[in-house]
Amino acid sequence: MKHGFIRVAAATPHIRLADCSYNAERIIDFIEKAEKQDVKLLVFPELCVTGYTCSDLFLQDILLQRAMEQVKKVAEATRGKEIAAIIGFPYKRTGRLYNTAAVVQGGKVLGLVPKLNIPNYGEFYELRYFVPGPGKAVKVDFLGEEVYFGSKILFECVDIPDFVFGVEICEDLWVPLSPGNTHCLEGATIIANLSASNEIVGKAEYRRELVKSQSNRLICGYVYADAGEGESTTDIVFSGHNLIAENGVILSESERFKDEIIINEIDLGIIQSDRRRMNTYHLQAVDSDYVRIRYSMQKEKYELKELDLIRKIDPSPFIADDSIDLNKRCHDIFKIQVMGLKARLGHIGAKSAVIGVSGGLDSTLALLVTHRAFELLGLDKKNILAVTMPGFGTSQRTYNNALSIAKCFGASILEIPIKDAVIQHFKDIGHDAGIHDITYENSQARERTQVLMDLANKHDGLMIGTGDMSELVLGWTTYSGDHMSMYGVNASVPKTLIRSIVKWYADTSENKEISALLGDILDTPISPELIPPGEGKDYQRTEDYIGPYELHDFFIFYVLRYGFSPEKVYRLAQTAFSQKYDKEEILKWLQVFYRRFFAQQYKRSCLPDGPKVGSVAISPRGDLRMPSDAKAKLWLEELNSITL
C-alpha cells in the first residue's frame, strides 16, 4: 500500500490432528480470502500442517512425508498471488526433526526457519521430538527444490520499501534473548510468530503484554498467530489468541476460543521514523551471518495501492481513547507540570507567582498547576498573584470567570486595565487606534507581558507562562508578548490536551463551584479578545483565523513525532476526520499549518524553560532544533500537487 502501510494478517484455521491434506486446504482457504483483501503477509500457527499436539505421531515417517508434500501444495497455491504466507510443519533432515516455519510466496518455498528454543518443562515436552535449528542458514534440498534453512534469514519484498520480515516460533518470543532481537537489528521491520500457546488463567494478559512489549522494545510490527480448535484437549486447551502489534500498541486482537483471521495495517513509516530518531538502536552489535531472501510480486511494474485503511486513525492522537487511560494521562501530565514548577520555584527561592488570568483554558490550567505547586511547597496561596488586565476586546464572561476562578483558589487578585496605557503607547509610536491591525493587537499582548514581568520583579516572584504548544507551533503568539515568560508550564501541552486536563480537573474536583466554573470556561470559544466587538461583527474566534485546533494538533503529532510527508499526513487526516471535514478543508488548513510552522520558528528558537510532558515537544534545547530560515517550499509543493 502507499505511504508505508503493509496489510498483514494472523489466522487460526480449524485443523484435524495428523490430517495434513485437510489442514492444507483450510490454510489455502485463508490464503485465498486474505489475498482478496490485499494482505501481503499472512501468518499461521506453529505446526499447523500437522497440528501441534500430535505427540509421538511426530515419529511416524508417513506424517512427516505428507507434511512436506502439503507444504509444497500450499506453496503452489500462492502462484500468481502477491501474498507471502508462513506455515508451521515438522521438517526432517539428516536424522533430525525440526519444528519449522515455511515461508511461501509466488508458488515457491522461499525459505525454512527452524525453532531455536525448544521448551521441555511443564506441559511442554518438545525435546522428545525436536532439536534446536541452526542459526546460520544453509542450503537444503526440499523435495527437489533448493532453499535456505536456518534462523538467520530475512525476507525482503523488493516491491514494497521497508517491508522486511523475520520469523520466530512460539517459545522464541518467551526467552530472554529472542531471535527477533537480531532480526530487527539486521533490518527486519516485522516479526512473524507462529505459536501454539495453550490457555490457562491469566496467560492471555501476559501473552498480550509480551507481544506488546516486544514490538515496543524492538520498534517493529509483530504478527502473532496462535493454535486453536482442533488441537488435542487431552491435557491442555488452545484459544487461537491472535495479535497484531506495532511499536507497543495492539492494533488487532482475535476473540479467544473462536478460530478466525485478524487483519490490519502496520505502518512501516512509524517504525522507520522511530528507529532513525533513536540513535542508540543502531549502536547495538549486528550479525553478518544473515541471509536475505528477496522476492517480488512478479509484475513488471508494481503499483502501490491507496486502499481504505482498516486500522483506526485516532483524530486526537494526544488524548487516550479509554476514559480510564485518559484520566491517568491527565493526572500524570498535571503532576509533571506541577513538579516542574515546584522545583523551579524552590530553586530560585521565589516568594510569589504571577499569572495573567484571562478566563480562558490556558491561563486556567496554569493557575491550577501553580495552586497545586504552592500546596506542595507549603506556601500561602495569597502569594499567587492573579492579574486580570481588561483590554479592548475583553468580554464580561471571560472577565467574570477569571476573577471567580482566582478567588476559588485563594489567589490574590489584581485588576490592571490596559486600555489607557495602550492608547498612550499608540500615541507614542504614531499609530491610529481606529486601525485594528497587528500593531493594535500585539501592543496589548506586550503591554500585558510587561505588567506581569514587572510585578514578578516587584513581588520577588516568578511570572508563569500560560501559552500552549499548539500556539507555539503555529506561532499564534506575540513575540516578546505572551510568547515570553519566566517558566512556561503549558509549553509542551497541545490545546486539545489542555482542554482534556481542565475537564479532568473539573470532573474530579469535589468543589461544585470550581467544577461549574471550569465547565463554563470549557464552553467558552477560544479567542485572544483583542478586537472589540462592533455592530454586526462576530466574536473574535481564534479558530476562524488559523483553523481548528483539533486538526492542527493532529498535524503536529504526525509531522513532529514521525516526520511524515505532507501527502501522508493529509491521507491520515482524511481517514481520521472523514465524518467532520471535507478534503478541501483539511488541505486548506494543512497548507496553513506548514506555512505558519516554517515561518514562525524564530519565535520557538528562544522559548523559556518549561516541562516536557510527552513524546512531542518543541524546546529549542533538544526537542526541536530547526533553523529559523528554513523554507516550506518542498512541503507546500507536495500539497499543491494533490488532486482533490
| CATH class assignment of the largest domain | Alpha Beta
Return the CATH architecture of the largest domain.
4-Layer Sandwich
Whole-Å distance between the termini? Answer: 20 Å
Tell how many strands the DSSP assignment holds.
20
Q: What is the gyration radius calculated from CA atoms?
A: 30 Å
> What count of helical segments does DSSP give?
20
Mean pLDDT comes to 95
- Structural class of the helix and strand makeup? alpha/beta
Helicity range: 25-40%
Sheet with the most strands, sense and barrel status: 8 strands, mixed
What is the total number of structural domains?
2
Q: Report low-confidence residues grouped into runs of 5 or more.
A: none
Strand coverage percent: 15-25%
What shape does the CA trace take?
elongated
Oligomer: single chain
Strand order of the largest sheet: 6-7-5-4-3-2-1-14
Give the full name of the CATH homologous superfamily of the largest domain: Carbon-nitrogen hydrolase
What is the CATH third-level topology name of the largest domain? Nitrilase/N-carbamoyl-D-aminoacid amidohydrolase
